[in-house]
Please model this.
Amino acid sequence: MIFRPLGRTGLQLSQLSFGASSLGQEFRPVDLNQAIRSVHVALDSGMNFIDTSPYYGRGMSECMLGVALREIPRDRYLLGTKLGRYAPAHFDFSARRVVESVDVSLERMKVDHLDIVLCHDIEFVELSQILEETLPALRRLQAQGKVRFIGVSGYPMAIFKAILDRAELDVILSYNHYTLQNTMLADLVPYLQAKGVGIMNAAPFSARLLTNAPLPPWHKATPEVRALCRQAAEHCTARGVDIAQLALQFSIADADMTTCIVGSANPENVQSWVKWAQTPLDPQLLSEVLAILRPIQNWFYTEGRPENNDPSPGSGN
Model:
């Protein structure tokens, strides 16, 4: 497993990290024993960072991690969670909830500190509250030793610069924006590096869009996006490769992305990812797949408040 520095934090994260959203049954009902086993396989395979949130399974993911990590020494892993989003339409980024949320997460996961805490999906709220209330409250918890490093996460690229132009962060987490289909996060790398901010990339499969699995009902991909991604997947299959393998290899190849967060409650999937990470990427196949996806390169959707989103291509904004 390759390890890379996370900004100026001093942390070294494995190039693959374990995302625990699946433990909260975000994609399908899970077998509890398999879910716990997937955490152990990830750690045994060299992944040293686990990412979760109280939103995943509305607390279930954190509770499952509390069980899965029970017998594992705390110095064997780095642990990150989030706060502010607790249900699809339930957001609370108040200073009071920051303190409560961190304490509840510590209790659920049976640990005495969190390595990283992120403000979760901040595009859904007024960013002024994040700047004036949420981040200062997190810095106070950092001073108390409950939290080591803080940051923000979300879908639109615009939110990161909007925050970092006015406040300091240790890390950011972006998802669906450094994949075979969308590489907008790469454009932000020089800005983030100049700020000394650690960069975490998540969701190389774009919520199953770049796999052979059926999309979840809530997926926002348009018919054109779905069709071209299916064409790319079928092209990979004809070449004897799972498109998910190519997607994962592509997302970990850029060393500017400290880690790529992937999640599953199936330990066999975790084992496959580690194997794929150690397999050389086929440059010819990559070129062919990128050509298929070129008409939808950097396609994205709107998430949260319109004012927090990126301008649409060709909008002139």
